[in-house]
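Handout, section 4.2: multi-component inputs.
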Amino acid sequence: MSAVLLDVRPHSRLRGDRAVDLNAAVLPVLDAVTASDVDLSRVRVVADWVQYRDSFRGVVQSRRIGHATPDTGGPPPPEPLGVREDDLEIAVDLRRSGSVEAGELHRLTAAALTAADDDVPLEDWGPGSRSCVWDFNALYWSALELWEKSTGRGYEQALPGGESDARNAEAARELILELFGMWDRLAAAQALPDELYVLEIGVGNGGQAKVFLDEFARLDQERGSEYYSRLHYLMCDYSAHVLELARDAVAEHAEQVSSFTLDATRPCTALGFLEYKIFLVYVSNVYDNLPTDEVAHLGGRTYQVEIRANFASAEAAELAASVGIGIDRLPGIVHRLLRLGPSLLADAMPDLFPDTGTAVEFWRRAWAAVRLDERYVPLAGLDTYDLGGETDLGGELLRPLLESGADVRMHVNNGALQSFVDSLRLLHPYGRLVCHDLFVTEIEGYRTHFRGPGKYDGSVVNWVNGPLLAHVGRRRGFDVRYERFRHRAGGGNIVTMTAQARD
Amino acid sequence: MAVLRTSVVGSYPVPDWMERLKTEYCRGRMSRAQLLDVHETAIKAALRDQELAGIDIVSDGELRRDNDLDYLLARISGMEIPRTTKDFYFDYYDVRVGAPLPAPSASTSLGLADDFVFTSERTDRPVKFSFTGPFSLARHVRNDAYPDRRGLVLAIARQLGAEAHTLVARGATHLQIDEPFLAGYPDEVGLAVEAINVVTAGVSAEWGLHVCYGNRYARPSWEGHYDFLFPAVLEASVDHLVLEFARKGLDDLPIVAEQGWDRGVGLGVIDVKSRRVESPEQVAGRIRRALELFPAERLMVNPDCGLRHLPGPIARAKLHAMVAGARLVREELVGLPAAPAGLRPVPESGTDHGPPVTAAAVTSEKPRPSTEET
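Output:
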């Protein structure tokens, strides 16, 4: 008989003084599994460390593994040979399970196995990128001012380290001097255009833009190169609120700066006229915050991870009671909130939300309560998987990352990929894209650590699949390099990605 | 003689399935014989596509080649490639030359003539055979053999020249040298032309020289204007300059005319970096503008560059549009009423060469417009 497959991710917290007690954290789960009537030869138990303080997961979560491939028309595709046909995956969060009393952990596992469905779903099953959690995410950025007012802290304080790495003057100086060197060479060859474009996507409150422009002006003056007067710095952000802050931050450079409210996934919609003209595209802490699907290769078969946002029944009851409605009305009210935002919701439903503050409070509580159910749905073939958007990104792009055949679950980062590909179109032949973010730089990194999604303040965060972006970039003639962000004391998780056309 | 002949620049789309197979080969997972069969099957399909579109002078689509450099460099005796495995077929080899290249001989043949013969035996149309020129090939080679780059460039030129002789001996009539790197090194056009003349010396063929702003991975590698080619390129022993105009606009065309280019021009009328399919009217408009500067018998109609990076259906549609646009202008030139472009059916057979027109009948009698007028 095949064995239960137990996959304990090799997180650093399995060792050392603060090591998690694996027996306490996992054995009650295994006890509950063996005590149930599930076919033990078709169960996998995955234990990993969910590093986010706030996440969408329970301590124990079950994920059904489907067998029937979706009907894509035509004859059914051939079944892969030699696959391990599991029915169920039990996921354990080691960060929390070790501190749960054994009996309770056993009970939580048993409940997950029975799949008693008294949770309150907010949507149907679907790919991760289409979940309503991205509507929550979008609402956070569009109504950021209200959220910040309610929490009493600015969004940047929610970032790891309390500020964006984009503000680092040393990093900016290095980048600017490289730009100057390249422009000098182009000028010598009489190939430097009159207008020198730099684009920042996700400009936030303008901290990076200010550092960049201050340094740029100073260095240009030192060198006497007269590039500053030819510079067009384009600031783009999804949030009109932070864009306004950014404009204030760079007011002294106003003649060099233009600002756009822009969907980061599609910069070409507004900036297509700058195709092949931009010398630097700068992106900081944006890709980890864009919609993503996940795919998994388990036991020799490829799956799409489908998710469904929901409230656990107890939390749903509490949330509904907080505004005096029945649970059955809760999904409708939440979707109305996501459509209208808190201010208009208060206008539309004054009986439930007498003022905007009450609506914001409801929003924050709803966000804190949102969980994601997950299941695995077999893919009929990589060609049937559309990475989405208006790009030509097809599922076959994933093949090199999955072809080893080893088990892996990874992000597709659909929004980041679209943004990346669209941005590459804008780059001058000598241009480059520089991005600071949470990158997984080797596929192996997906086998060792949980990489999201998690919650940062009111937004969603996922690590970004670096090998996938590198492959896509490479296929478009770009060398894509990753290195740990060099300008922060103590390192941290931030990685710098640089994409530059191959010579 | 048909005027406004249509042709392709060289490369043709590589379908996804073929990419996979080529990559399998580059990783050592497929045999050379299997790869050869894949290539030959794809070439036959590409020929058929071009014939159906009505292209006058067809090519093998360079489908045997991984990219613009490797196929040729790997065949030049004396080139050292330490790692012949690739992660993906479109990656480039690292290439070094450690000792002067051997003098061309039967034993150093690149084998391109066999490729040409395979193609020409499978179509009744004239075949254009193109290869990357010595200047661009040398840019990718680490030179540890010659005191300067010129030595390497000319050595490669001698190899290609010998190959050109063999190609013509085996029946080739239309040869083209591609110099995709030249626009990045405008100061070195003189060297490139010197090398081109080594390649073409004594080779009796209709020679084209293709210079664009790069099309690696469907992106331009450089930006600029064609004035960098002049006056050096006037010394090149070639019959046509095959240039990129559709993407960049025709503003550079007067440069070519004003600088005294007195031979043929391969007019790029199809933007190979865009997936938007041009209309026949759009193509015709571009040709009409060129006719203000060059007589019809000196114009060849072609895409800006190779079609490699376009999806097959889009590439085919663009070729159809190009042929239909050229036909519209041909009909105007001989005084035939032109059918509305949108009503004209896409050619179904390979017989659509347009009506034969004598050169004398279409030579522009109009005075050449001044720069201001253009």
